[in-house]
Amino acid sequence: MTGHYQDRDSLPRMTISMLGADKSGKSSYILGMFAALVRGQLHHQYALSAASQAVSIAMQQELDDLCAGNPPKPTDEPKTHEFTLRGGLAGAGRAGGVQTGIAALDLIDFRGGTMRELPEGDNDAARYFARLPKSDSIFVVLDSRYFREPVTPDRQHAVAQDTWAYRIGDLIGWAIEKREEAGLAPPSIVVLLTKWDLLEQWQPIGGRGLAEVYDDVQALLPKVFGVGLEQYVFSVSIGQFSDLDGNPRQATINLSSIEKPVFFATGCFLTHVTERLYARREPMLADRAAIAARLAMLTWWPPSIQSLLFRARIDRRRAELTAKDAEIAALDLHGTQIAEHQRVLRSLAE
Ligand SMILES: Nc1nc2c(ncn2[C@@H]2O[C@H](COP(=O)(O)OP(=O)(O)OP(=O)(O)O)[C@@H](O)[C@H]2O)c(=O)[nH]1
Ligand SMILES: [Mg+2]
Known about the structure:
CATH superfamily of the largest domain: P-loop containing nucleotide triphosphate hydrolases
Largest sheet: 7 strands, mixed
Number of domains: 2
Shape: elongated
CATH class of the largest domain: Alpha Beta
Bound molecules: guanosine-5'-triphosphate, magnesium ion
CATH architecture of the largest domain: 3-Layer(aba) Sandwich
Strand content: 15-25%
């Protein structure tokens, strides 16, 4: 809808949940993502804004603290970060040359430990379990340090224990099942290999890249790669904010591939938004056909009778038809734009 201002509440709402062990880098990733996308980029036309200035200022402060050597405090209270993703499609053509809000993003950050606690009453675990099946995308957060060496069969159980991989797989299966019961598509699954700089610096055996680690992740979390699921594995780093043993240290922010996971997840989400938009098209076409049929019954009469008896009714039907056509055209344009964003976002994630 060209030129039409859409506030956050009118945008499609996308929920992302993070699943990862304690200290795996969940909160740091969110901070890095905020830094990358709030700044905006020249090579792509997408940017993020926080839903409130208070949040924006608090996150900026946390970023400054991180650079000064004070990493985010362990997450205690579950936090929902509310962002809006905006984007522009370059070029001419029906979908080009416009910038619009694309999605309202709710990013849910929990203390890692929550996912191993029993839900009771309104405790964190209960809230966590309530949110998880509402997630359009699940970000699985794995600390890259565990993959410096191959995950051989004799290491596999220990690595699964440290990364909580089996619990994560279990929760993903559960969330998919709950969504299916509610008639919802499965979530897209994004695997974040965080602190990738710590893997790259690890030279004793050297030579491990994303392709090797990908195989390890597949062996640890086969559920993520289940048939019919959309998934992607990303290596990310926000800067050398801890040493090889994991002790925090002062560093400069150095973002690597930070926004790609969000682009991928949004691309997957927009595929479903497009489907929902086109589902709305059918009833609109039926309405249009009904109006056209009523008009045809009136214009069947000879012109003299039409103008004598039905002038006002014919005018009314014609106005209804014009309005319905405009409604369908607006939906089609919106659908074309969303489909184009979907394509661009997915390609930016490659
Ligand atoms: N070298 C390096 N260290 C990182 C990176 N990202 C995070 N860290 C370090 O990892 C530690 C843990 O990060 P957090 O973001 O607090 O982890 P978390 O998963 O939110 O932890 P909980 O909230 O306790 O579950 C911090 O001390 C950071 O300094 C990175 O990209 N590189
Ligand atoms: Mg945290």
